[in-house]
Amino acid sequence: MYTLFHDVIHYILGLATLGLRATCSLPQGDTRQPSGCPVNEKRRPGFGTWRPPWSGQRASIWGERVLGDEKPEGVERTVFSFTRGQPAKEIPEIRILLYGDLPKNKENIIYLANHQSTVDWIIADILAVRQSALGHVRYVLKDGLKWLPLYGCYFSQHGGIYVKRSAKFNENQMRKKLQRYINAGTPMYLVIFPEGTRYNPELTKVISASQAFAAQEGLPVLKHVLTPRIKATHVAFDSMKDYLDAVYDVTVAFEGSVDDKGQRKEAPSMAEFLCKECPKIHIHIDRIDKKNIPEEQVSMKRWLHERFEIKDKLLIEFYDSPDPERRNKFPGESVNSKLSLKKTLPSFLILSGLTAGLLMTEAGRKLYVKTWIYGTLIGCLWVSIKA
């Protein structure tokens, strides 16, 4: 019952996040830089910055609308603007393009993906919600994230597993936590980023160290991903092999994340994603049946690296193909990911309604601040003992 409660909370928070996408551009003709948006980026005219509804400024919420064949861009969202009586406007939105296997049914799975941005967390939610599994998403996280205000404690209570790197990795602790979830019959959509840190082409020392490690281990050197680490993946699979249905091997590429010279640059941050600085996200999914995954650690290490070699080839084709027609897409047919308004609007309204109810009164604002302060302190104490 306790886990079910956290699944419901995660479901509401996840859908609210997917439903709330702010536009950063100012009204047409206004040359000011929008607050909170990346500098030195082109702004799209005609949209308002996000402001709280009670501030008298422009604010909007939107849900997705699938357009007909006459609109080649495929997907737009209908915007409901609460702006001094101005009519709603339709604006182009980020398109999510899916390739490969497209699972529809709920499954107990391990989700393995390349890691390059904080947006990767949202992408896991984007895929899970299409299987009605958003409340089942749990993450393997870097240990330092447990000190995040409120969320550090929440992730742990919801089934997140904090791990340390290299020799500090506590294998027994991870196995015990996973076994508790198995014994309780907890649905499992376990997200792991085997690289252990984000790939950033500007951090050349990190990339060089990763490539040197691969060469030292006798493994092929990778270009667009870091050398994957095996420990968390092996422990997760070994602990849950009789409980799992499959492993999802997910490769993500952000269109537009190259500079004027065609060189790859840092992937969009969460703020840039919310400000619509990424026109398309391409997601390639391989569903791998558990019987096709080696169980012994040395064999699995080689298998995992081979999966990242496949990712690297996909990303080389995406970013570096000499043929312009083959760049900015993965091989094969793509499917526009469609998410209806009814999937996100209720959760958005619940979350924004509760927040607005607190912030519109003095007593509510005090409670809001105290919740953050005392909740953070209690949460940090809790994770220092339990996580």
From TrEMBL:
Residues 109-234 form the Phospholipid/glycerol acyltransferase domain. Pfam families: Acyltransf_C, Acyltransferase. GO terms for cellular component: endoplasmic reticulum; mitochondrion. GO terms for biological process: phosphatidylinositol acyl-chain remodeling; phospholipid biosynthetic process. Residues 1-24 form the signal peptide. The keyword Lipid metabolism applies. It comes from the Eukaryota. One of its GO terms (molecular function) is acyltransferase activity. Keywords: Acyltransferase, Lipid biosynthesis, Lipid metabolism, Phospholipid biosynthesis, Phospholipid metabolism, Signal, Transferase. This is 1-acyl-sn-glycerol-3-phosphate acyltransferase epsilon. The lineage of its organism: Eukaryota, Metazoa, Chordata, Craniata, Vertebrata. Belongs to the 1-acyl-sn-glycerol-3-phosphate acyltransferase family. The gene is AGPAT5. It comes from Bison bison bison (North American plains bison). InterPro entries: Acyltransf_C, Plipid/glycerol_acylTrfase.
